[in-house]
Specification:
There is one protein chain. With 446 residues, the protein is of the alpha+beta class. 34% of the residues lie in helices and 25% in strands. Strands 1-11-10-7-8-9 form a 6-stranded mixed β-sheet. A 6-stranded antiparallel β-sheet has the order 14-13-12-15-16-17. Helix 2 packs across helix 3, helix 6 runs antiparallel to helix 7 and helix 6 runs antiparallel to helix 9. The two termini are 30 Å apart.
């Protein structure tokens, strides 16, 4: 959990603020029905959290608790949407009918959850308390395993190339090789290997080459420049504790929230495990940043900041050749409404050039956060595209639900829009759009 906010907390959130946290339009509608006192009992607040019991279809009411600073949510309902309609309904009740949410000490069940969150935040980093000599020995042992696994992967790839990509007679499934990478403590390599079995024939050679390059770099990490070495370690599967990142340099700015997306963490796993991606841009520095939050079963990802709002905070960036991912440090107040204008953007040609520059730093970069200005969505026989009248970029297949793209076209009505998303070699994945009234429109759900 991020460190606590510095400064006064917002006393009441606006209805727009609350609804901007909803995962989709259906959740907004359902939450509206739960925004009155009727379905709620024992609703209370201590200024930092909300809690209440909501009557549902069963005999036992759903228990909902919200920690406001992050915010974070916990509800006993079976919904897999984060936040669920009960959390949104309780926030709307608190926002619109404050007298229905009494000032009180947290109920026992709410207090237990809030205390558990505080305890998790107070646990010191294992790396900070570990014996340095023992940690160094473990790191050296893992490094040797990773290098051996990467060397084996290079041989497997070369063997497939020698037999020819079209010859499937000697090519077994890649799952066995992926398991070997897991044994070598290189989960990042394992994940990329598993994807090979599902790739179309025309993309195999490209992915083989990029995977071979990554495996080669993994055997020579100590010879690489510091930034590129950090990128390779991350892509191989090394992780860095957030506390360690936050102990280093931080960047304070007023960060504008460009968009967010919540999605399952991966194919083949428990679909209740989710990851939330929140993209920011510094108002003073202009620097892009990506925050990640993860949700376990029955626990939503912690981070939720309304798109378009400004959050004054310190961010600590993970080391990389092209730093983007960041850890959220000290926050200075609650999110505030952003400027009454869309963020400044690039032409399509400038976006392509910007991605090219990013790839020069990180060859394995699939996409880079980009704001396009003055583009119009069009549907062609080849699929959806965004054009600025001079150049056109395809919308990445399956990146956005079809109904969301039709809504985008309806909002545009042929007029230029500002659109934020990720641009990469497979096209543009829209996340947020700003229309004529300059309100952000989320595009990650139908």
């Amino acid at each position: 959990m991020p460190p606590p906010t510095v400064g006064a907390m917002e006393e009441r959130w606006s209805t727009e603020h609350v609804l901007s946290l909803a995962p989709d339009a259906a959740s907004q509608k359902a939450a509206g029905k739960l925004s009155t006192p009727a379905p709620w009992s024992a609703a209370g607040t201590d200024g930092t959290a909300l809690w209440g019991e909501c009557r549902g279809s069963g005999s036992t009411p759903y228990r909902t608790v919200i920690e406001l600073a992050t915010p974070a949510y916990r509800c006993s309902c079976p919904s897999r949407k984060f936040p669920c309609k009960h959390a949104l309904g309780l926030l709307l009740l608190w926002s619109g009918t404050p007298e229905a949410v009494a000032a009180a000490e947290p109920a026992d069940w709410a207090a237990d959850w809030l205390a558990a969150r505080r305890e998790r935040a107070a646990i010191p980093s294992a790396q900070a308390t570990a014996d340095p000599a023992a940690a160094r020995r473990r790191a050296e042992k893992r490094g040797a395993r990773v290098a051996a696994g990467a060397a084996e992967l290079r041989l497997r790839l070369a063997d497939r190339i020698r037999h020819g990509l079209a010859d499937r007679s000697t090519a077994g499934p890649w799952e066995e090789v992926a398991a070997r990478m897991v044994d070598a403590q290189a989960p990042g390599l394992a994940a990329r290997v598993r994807e090979l079995d599902g790739l179309p024939q025309e993309r195999l050679l490209e992915e083989y080459a990029m995977l071979h390059l990554l495996a080669t770099a993994a055997t020579r990490i100590d010879e690489l420049p510091a930034g590129l070495a950090a990128t390779v370690r991350t892509r191989v599967g090394y992780t860095t504790d957030a506390a360690e990142i936050l102990a280093g340099p931080t960047v304070r700015d007023r960060w504008q929230v460009l968009g967010s997306r919540t999605a399952p963490m991966g194919d083949g796993g428990d679909d209740r495990l989710t990851t939330r991606r929140v993209w920011l841009r510094g108002a003073k520095t202009g620097r892009p940043a990506l925050l990640l939050a993860f949700g376990r079963p029955d626990q939503a990802p912690d981070l939720a900041v309304p798109t378009g709002h400004l959050l004054e905070a310190e961010l600590a960036f993970h080391p990389a050749a092209r730093p983007l991912r960041a850890a959220l440090g000290t926050r200075y107040g609650a999110p505030e409404p952003g400027p009454a204008a869309p963020p400044t953007g690039l032409t399509v040609a400038e976006a392509v050039a910007g991605y090219g520059t990013a790839v020069a730093d990180d060859p394995w970069l699939d996409a880079w956060p980009t704001v396009l200005a003055g583009v119009v969505p069009v549907r062609t026989p080849e699929g959806w595209q965004l054009t600025d009248g001079h150049h056109t970029v395809p919308v990445r297949p399956s990146a956005v639900p079809e109904p969301a793209l039709w809504r985008l076209a309806a909002v545009s009505t042929g007029r230029p829009l500002t659109v934020f998303g990720e641009y990469g070699h497979q096209g543009f994945a829209p996340v947020t759009a700003w229309a004529g009234d300059h309100r952000p429109i989320g595009l990650t759900t139908a």
